[in-house]
Amino acid sequence: MERQETAILITTIILVMIIVIMISLFLIFQKRKNTLLLQQKEDQQRFEKSIAETQIEIREETLRNISWELHDNIGQLLTLAKIQVSVAQNDPNKLQEVTDTITKSLVELRSLSKLINPDAIKSLNLTEAITMEIERFNRLQFIKATITSNEEVEVLDDKVEIIIFRILQEFFTNTIKHSKASNLDVNVVYDEEKLVIHAKDNGVGFNMNGSNTKQGIGLCNIQNRGKLINANVILESEEGKGTAMTLTYYYNKKSLTSLENEVD
């Protein structure tokens, strides 16, 4: 009888211990889950904030582009047309030159309207948006720029495209403002697994290990934006040999745009 009571007591203690352990594990699991969910929420909030800031930067860059085009391109064409009109008053044979200049001005205005119209921008895919930038550089004679690409095989998330486009904009801005380059080449390649974009200028380059430089700040911005979408961004530069950037984005690699609950 005593043995039976002892066995029941031991069994009861074991069951209680098992229940306590299970409750403890459940509480630890819930705490870990809540911590993970909170971290994911904070990451998503940071990502959304960064997206908003990036959209503002792109909008500001677009406004700067419009200002440049109005002043440096369309403004000069209209000034030339005004001069030609004055000349044509005494020489009617010059009227064709006036017509040609005004026609060119209209073409430039139509190109500029694409930058102004947000619906037109939204309808572009990433390659088309990059191509528009390249065409603008050539039109304004900022630099001789080229772009090569294959057909898009993967539709990217809009937010991913915004980040990638802004990364390229920063690289282009550094090239035009600081590199003293005469050529800029961009290659966009989509394959079944990833997108690879390679951009290279033939500018003066800079010391990658240098500090307190505008290039260093730009490099930091580019790297930070790449991390937001888990894109691999490699920058290479050497004094006198130009600067190159290679951006690799894997379609199936989890990014902050597709945060999911890892624990049910």
Automatic annotation (TrEMBL):
Main EC class the enzyme belongs to: transferase
UniProt xrefs under Gene3D superfamilies: 1.20.5.1930, Histidine kinase-like ATPase, C-terminal domain
A Pfam family it matches: HisKA_3
Enzyme Commission identifier(s): 2.7.13.3
Catalytic activity as recorded in UniProt: ATP + protein L-histidine = ADP + protein N-phospho-L-histidine
Superkingdom, natural source: Bacteria
Segments forming domain Histidine kinase/HSP90-like ATPase: 161-248
Keywords: ATP-binding, Kinase, Membrane, Nucleotide-binding, Phosphoprotein, Transferase, Transmembrane, Transmembrane helix, Two-component regulatory system
Transmembrane regions: 6-29
Keyword ATP-binding: yes
Transmembrane helix found in the keyword field: yes
UniProt GO MF annotations: ATP binding; phosphorelay sensor kinase activity; protein dimerization activity
Residue span, Signal transduction histidine kinase subgroup 3 dimerisation and phosphoacceptor domain: 65-119
Record's GO cellular component terms: membrane
Protein name: histidine kinase
